[in-house]
Write a structure and sequence with these properties.
single chain
């Protein structure tokens, strides 16, 4: 039996994998922004901590945008 790969399914899976990768990066940045100052001292929390957190939230938003690129099969 010959299996034919559906290009739409393959595309959607690649989109989901990339969105998951971007989300993992965003969680890492947010974790870095929050946990690093907590492990040292709270006096180390400065403006760069805020920027790392914002960058993580922005990447999280990008992952949601990427998931919006999933395509549906059009039935005729």
């Amino acid at each position: 039996m010959k299996t034919i790969r559906d290009p739409l399914v393959a595309y959607n899976e690649r989109v989901k994998i990339f969105a998951g990768f971007m989300n993992a990066l965003s969680l890492g940045l947010i974790g870095f922004a929050v946990l690093r100052p907590l492990t040292e001292t709270l006096s180390n929390a400065n403006l760069s901590t805020l920027w790392w957190g914002i960058a993580g939230l922005a990447l999280h938003g990008v992952s949601h945008y990427i998931l919006g690129r999933i395509r549906k099969e059009v039935k005729e």
